[in-house]
Amino acid sequence: MTDDVTYQNYLELDTLLSLQKPRTADSADMKSIVLSEQFFIIAHQASELWLRQIIADLEAVIDAFTTTDDTSNAEWIVDLLQRSAKLIEVLHTQLTALDRLPLGDFAMFRQLLGTASGAQSEQFQRLARLVGNAQQDGPLYESFTAWVTRSGHTVSGLARRGIDAGVHYRIIEALLDLGNGYWRWQVGHVSMLTKIMGSHSGTGGTSGADYLLSRCSLPFGELRELRSQAHVGLSVATS
Ligand code: HEM
């Protein structure tokens, strides 16, 4: 029986829309600050929702890499990786909206945040572990290379074959798009926050922009290195 399903109750909108609670006292002369703080809360909550989907999709990819030895799930893996890459782009676009957070309002409600900081985002930490960084591959890349090996290929061989590697090529492309999007999100976060807080330190106790810049990192280093090798020994004849 689905008669009593409505848009409102299916999405649990009463609960969802009751969760934006600015700490600024709501009064006529504080209206601008209350609206700005609501904007700040929604930007973070929406990001956490998208992070939930990205993490679930990437964990499904890792599971598929781990439990299959062939390409039976490979097109689904491509779909999930491409969706994750797209959703990381959404995260980045949402951040750019915060360029429209009025500086004076932010300065006013920021003191109400205490030591709360994005650095405490457990979902972001989980994503960062899954994806890895330039120094250390994460489970996403490790499960990919193990799957490639079990199915009788090598990553370098697939990279050399380029588009002729078919679905393997599309997986490599999707991983690189995901990694680039992740990096763009990190860099976009730093540029957005330097606009609103300059070199001021963060509520989480870090130096702010300098600290975050040092954490920006392009994952999947091996795939990038293999891309650079594709240029070795190639040249286009000129007339
Ligand atoms: C006006 C908006 C924002 C400002 C001024 C800001 C500022 C900062 C600062 C200064 C840090 C460094 C840690 C600290 O000392 O607090 C940080 C970390 C972080 N922020 Fe933001 N942020 C903003 C919006 C967002 C949004 C919308 C998200 C989305 C979830 C986010 C996610 C994060 C994450 C995940 C970290 C940790 C990054 C890492 O460990 O590499 N931030 N933020």
TrEMBL record:
A biological process (GO) annotation for this entry?
A: L-tryptophan catabolic process to acetyl-CoA
Q: Name one GO molecular function term.
A: metal ion binding
Q: Which domain of life is it from?
A: Bacteria
PANTHER family found in the cross-reference section? TRYPTOPHAN 2,3-DIOXYGENASE
This protein's name: Tryptophan 2,3-dioxygenase
Q: Please give the organism.
A: Streptomyces glaucescens
